Amino acid sequence: MKNWQEFEMGAVLFPFEKQGQEELGKHNNERAYTTDSSFTASVANWRVEKPVHNKDVCINCFNCWVYCPDASILSREGKMSGIDYEHCKGCGVCVDVCPTNPKSLLMFDNLEPVEEALTKWPQKAEGLKKKSYRTEGGYNGF
Ligand code: SF4
Ligand code: SF4
Questions:
Q1: Ligand 1 centre from 83 Cα, in Å?
Q2: Helix, strand, coil tally for the chain in percent (to 5)
Q3: Domain 4Fe-4S ferredoxin-type: where (predicted)?
Q4: CATH number, span 44-114
Q5: ω into 102 cis (within 30 of 0)
Q6: What are the boundaries of each domain within the chain?
Q7: Which ligand is nearest to the CA of 97?
Q8: Is 71 left (phi over 0), alpha (psi -120 to 50) or beta?
Q9: Ligand 2 center to residue 66 CA distance, Å?
């Protein structure tokens, strides 16, 4: 694989060895990724904070799945099932777009055990005005 300075501007790296639609129907650990994809060239070592998922608050809207730039939101049987920490770079976009109150994803120090993070979850904040997703980015809370 070329290093990044050698790519032509606007170059596209195809993530799958086979047809993308065929591969997208499979779980992430079963797909035939190319060696040039971010699946094999993980940037998880950039992470200083990690998102933690609280399934007790999650409404399975999959906003986080749509917006995650590294396809690190995992799902099983139609529900969000957690974070792929082998690939998550800790950008926090998933937390920003989560619409619940309190949020179902929150950032914690990368070294914080998930079980401990879950014991520190905030309560529902009262008096938050619900905003439009399209114009104002969801809840302006937490
Ligand atoms: S922190 Fe960023 S990379 Fe990690 S799961 Fe959330 S959106 Fe994806
Ligand atoms: S955006 Fe929040 S509520 Fe929606 S699936 Fe993700 S964690 Fe759950």
A1: 8
A2: 25, 15, 60
A3: 49-77, 78-108
A4: 3.30.70.20
A5: yes
A6: 11-41, 44-114
A7: 2
A8: left
A9: 10
Residue 80 structure tokens: 């969000």
- Whose Cα sits closest to atom 2 in ligand 2? 98
* pTM, full prediction: 0.80
pLDDT by residue (tens digit) across 86-111? Answer: 999 999 999 999 999 999 999 999 99
- Tell the residue nearest (CA) to atom 2 of ligand 1: 91
Residue whose entry in the numeric block shows the structure tokens 């014991």? 119
Tens-binned pLDDT, residue by residue, of the chain (142 aa): 778 788 888 888 788 888 888 888 888 888 898 887 878 888 899 999 999 999 999 999 999 999 999 889 999 888 999 999 999 999 999 999 999 999 999 999 999 999 999 999 999 988 766 555 555 555 444 4
